[in-house]
Amino acid sequence: MHRLSRRSVSAVLRNSGARRRSISAPISSSTSFTHTVQDDDSKLSQFSSRWYSVSTSGRHNASKSTLFSPHNGMFLGKRYESTAAASDASDPPVEKYEYQAEVSRLMDLIVHSLYSNKEVFLRELISNASDALDKLRFLSVTEPALLKDAVDLDIRVQTDKDKGIITITDTGIGMTQQELVDCLGTIAQSGTAKFLKALKDSKDAGADNNLIGQFGVGFYSAFLVSDRVVVSTKSPKSDKQYVWEGEANASSYTIREETSPEKLIPRGTRLTLYLKRDDKGFAHPERIQKLVKNYSQFVSFPIYTWQEKGYTKEVEVDEDPAETKNDGDGKAEKKKKTKTVVERYWDWELTNETQPIWLRNPKEVTTEEYNEFYKKTFNEYLDPLASSHFTTEGEVEFRSILYVPAIAPTGRDDIINPKTRNIRLYVKRVFISDDFDGELFPRYLSFVKGVVDSNDLPLNVSREILQESRIVRIMRKRLVRKAFDMILGISMSENREDYEKFWENFGKNLKLGCIEDRENHKRIAPLLRFFSSQSDEEMISLDEYVENMKPEQKDIYYIASDSLTSARNTPFLERLVVKDFEVLFLVDPIDEVAIQNLKSYKEKNFVDISKEDLDLGDKNEEKEKEIKEEFGRTCDWIKKRLGDKVASVQISNRLSTSPCVLVSGKFGWSANMERLMKAQTVGDTSSLEFMRSRRVFEINPEHQIIKDLNAAYQTRPDDEDALRAIDLLYDTALISSGFTPENPAQLGGKIYEMMGMALSGKWIAPILDSQRREMGSSETVEAEVVEPVEVGGQK
Ligand SMILES: Nc1ncnc2c1ncn2[C@@H]1O[C@H](COP(=O)(O)OP(=O)(O)OP(=O)(O)O)[C@@H](O)[C@H]1O
């Protein structure tokens, strides 16, 4: 589908007279009358005072007239008809025009500002040339006669380093006399106008940005490096060729007809830049070649640069009479001598790749070519894991090749650094930028590399434009979708190792995506991988988990832990293992938050098995009632002893071998989360305290210790040993459930105390007995009972 290029659109805008001054009389000719201009545009008015002062200065003995566009009456500038030119009857008249006030201002800025990135001038001018060729190509579809001159569509850059001149010639659409005035004397709603606005804003904000580097300023960037610019142009719409001439610092320009036969061109535009003294270095052929390669490598028309070449050849050299041999017959044998010389000549050299790989038909590009392009463009030494080449059409059109690198950059910080320069944006094959901050890809996908070439964005797209543009938002959506398709492709590859490699390098990014990109949960979830209670050596996908679910299983279970070993051994697993329910092991600190953000997968909720109210689908209400009757009061007794340390004490349905476990509140933090939060908390710990008080102490009524405690409550509820056993049970459950004890030394003390009680002279008593027997005494010697040690003020 053919589309009008952005520049044609900007020309339309320019001609529409939007934001122009109001004109109060009908206009019949472009030059016929003077007119009072009223500036009702506040933005323009800041420049207009200069305009009026210039227009009334009248340096020349010239007749003045105000120019309006014949198409729409738009104000274009003022024209002086030079009397000097008119005096020579053989020369066509040179017409002198004032720049529109904004152009003067812009040129003034360009000339008087010290911009470091001057070299962008070439990119801008080549891009104008490429646009002119695009426009011609587009129009020739309906008007084939436009191509009747049979000249190739190309761009040629010639340099004269001695004189400091650069000539850029294209065979594009050219400009008529009127277009020269419209286009090179005025600024409409183009990027250049935005540039001026941004410049004003940045000045207001006190910033001194290198705005030309960011924006480009179209044609006027020629004055970054030139004192004088001559534009000689021939439009197929006109029989005549016109020459526009402007100087840096001047407030006016001239237009005349080209009459020298040797300067006539069949079609297109020739720009001659007379470089400033300090910028003559740009006229070195090698430098120009380098700039073309750097900035305009993928312009879709051939760009030739004028280069010196050489070839070697053998030439005969004058023979030395001393070396002439006599063959004995008296005849002298002439010995021919040659030498190798380098013959130098100048010729055009193709300097860009005319067909960027992304413009080619994907069916015709080999994997090797994609990989080569990737390595060359991104300075990579490994082939990518995957690539995707696509075109989008419709609302927004762009072409792109995306890649998933084989490895993550070294230094983990880089992984979620959006400023990775991984996406190179082109607008109509002109390289625009690779310096993005999440505009084209969310930061969690910033590892994806690639090129994006849009026809819909303005060439001088700035970060601000990118952030605000609806086009960019649509592009971003599509790019993200394509990136996911590409990753899904790796995950479905027969070679499981590929995805393992991907996961190892970029798994964290996808988990971050679960947290940051709700919109794409459906795309991210199938790509996640975890170890599980039934697969702790090979990670599984959520699909594999769901496939492996038992018929009576409703939810997807998980436990978050700091290591596989502790996940494997957690008491929370016990009943699930008995029931053969698989449990995901979330051992990466980010896992738990990621899963909590997902909430469910394929309509199955994620359930943390370390939290209150775990329902394993096997409730037996009668049995529960029975147990409650038997242990209910014991629970209350334990709660009384533990006080505020726990929210409640309940009978567990998740234990089989452990006596008890400490469960997090339904909406509280798991042990894992508590540990992570603790590591990050500085200062106020009130939320930690609160979460702690929400824990639930669950007891296993089948366990002997609990049965003993139940008996203790019924017989001697005040027994010190029983109460100490409750304390120790709590502390032990704290550790085995993954929490950190608040006072490890005190816990140590309690353990020693219990050990003392348990052993109570088990090995020493027989020794004492035998000693006594040896001494012949019949007295029984009491084994020394270890007294409880007081630790931290508590026995
Ligand atoms: N080589 C060329 N051939 C034909 N027309 C040209 C050429 N160079 C410039 N023009 C005309 O001059 C106009 C102004 O060019 P300029 O580069 O200043 O602005 P732009 O390309 O429209 O917008 P931007 O400010 O975004 O670059 C162009 O829109 C185009 O119509």
CATH topology of the largest domain: Heat Shock Protein 90
Radius of gyration: 42 Å
The CATH architecture of the largest domain can be named as: 2-Layer Sandwich
Helix content: 25-40%
- What would you give as the CATH superfamily of the largest domain? Histidine kinase-like ATPase, C-terminal domain
Strand content: 15-25%
Structural class: alpha+beta
> Spans of 5+ residues with little confidence (pLDDT < 50)?
1-87, 788-795
Apparent shape: elongated
The count of strands amounts to: 27
What is the number of helical segments per DSSP (H or I, 4+ residues)? 25
The biggest beta sheet is recorded as: 11 strands, mixed
Oligomerization: single chain
Please give the CATH class of the largest domain: Alpha Beta
- Report how far apart the termini are: 86 Å
The strand order across the widest sheet is 1-2-3-8-7-6-9-5-4-10-13
Word description of this protein:
- This protein is α+β, with helices and mostly antiparallel strands.
- The protein folds into 4 domains: 203 residues, Histidine kinase-like ATPase, C-terminal domain (Heat Shock Protein 90, 2-Layer Sandwich), CATH 3.30.565; 136 residues, Ribosomal Protein S5, domain 2, CATH 3.30.230.80; 80 residues, Rossmann fold (3-Layer(aba) Sandwich), CATH 3.40.50.11260; 140 residues, Up-down Bundle (Four Helix Bundle (Hemerythrin (Met), subunit A)), CATH 1.20.120.
- Helices cover 36% and strands 20% of the residues.
- The strands form 5 sheets. It has an 11-stranded mixed beta sheet with strand order 1-2-3-8-7-6-9-5-4-10-13. A 6-stranded mixed beta sheet has the order 20-19-22-21-24-23. Strands 14-15-18-16-17 form a 5-stranded mixed beta sheet, sandwiched between helices.
- It is elongated.
- It binds adenosine-5'-triphosphate.
